[in-house]
Amino acid sequence: MNVPLPLLATLLFSMMGPIALLPLFAKATGGADAGLQRKIAVRAAIFAILALAVAVFVGAKIMQSAGTSRSSLIMASGVILMLTALRNIFGASAPPSTPAEPPGMVLALTPVAIPGIVTPMGVAILILFASYFPEMVDRLAILAVVTGIMLANLLAMLSAQWFMRVVGPTPLIVLGAIFGVLQAAMGVEMIVSGLGMSRLFGHS
């Protein structure tokens, strides 16, 4: 197995983990009773795992058929990380809107699963990793990391109302800033690595 699992886990946690999900879920399901909140959380986690499994096995296959080089995949990952980090650091995200209708199971799909958990940036990184490491054992390892992140999300959703009421958003803001800087640094490193592997520097 060749996948750098700690790196992948860090990236997915920052892009699709509980930091942004906690306040979104708490606000979206604020009018629901505890039982409905649990059902929404479980279904959202299932929807997210299924969507991300499609990205790992189908999206990566489509990417591979394009014949993209490994250096290009690394640089693309770096650019995505850089743009995501800069947006998180310098651009304020719009707060999640409160549903106009009473909360229902439809919230599990949107906005909780998509785009709350399954973010476009996270899916892009996932597809790039699965394309760079095409062996089945590598993709199963990637899917295992995804499943672990989704379990963390499920636990976060189940405790979201308590967390936002007792702890509040301040720790999430601090953690978001830390992960934003980390993402930016990783993005720069990936771009430099990709350039080093490219033909621009005499490598294949």
Report what the structure shows.
It is built from nine helices and no strands. It has helices spanning 5-16, 18-28, 34-65, 70-90, 109-117, 120-132, 136-158, 160-166, 170-197. The chain is 76% helix and 0% strand. With 204 residues, the protein is mostly helical.
Specify the overall morphology. globular
Broad structural category: mainly alpha
Largest sheet: none
Kindly provide the radius of gyration, computed on alpha-carbon positions and rounded to a whole number of angstroms: 18 Å
Roughly what percent helix? over 70%
Measure the end-to-end span: 23 Å
Counting DSSP E segments of at least 2 residues, the number of strands comes to: 0
> Proportion of β residues?
under 5%
Poorly predicted spans: none
Order of SSEs, N→C?
A: HHHHHHHHH
Work out the helix count. 9
Secondary structure layout:
Layout (H helix, E strand, L loop, with lengths): L4 H12 L1 H11 L5 H32 L4 H21 L18 H9 L2 H13 L3 H23 L1 H7 L3 H28 L7
Helix pairs in contact: 1-2, 1-6, 1-7, 2-5, 2-7, 2-8, 3-5, 3-6, 3-7, 4-6, 4-9
Describe the structure in brief:
The protein has helices at residues 5-16, 18-28, 34-65, 70-90, 109-117, 120-132, 136-158, 160-166, 170-197. It is mostly helical and 204 residues long.
Quick tags:
single chain; 204 residues; mainly alpha; 76% helix; globular
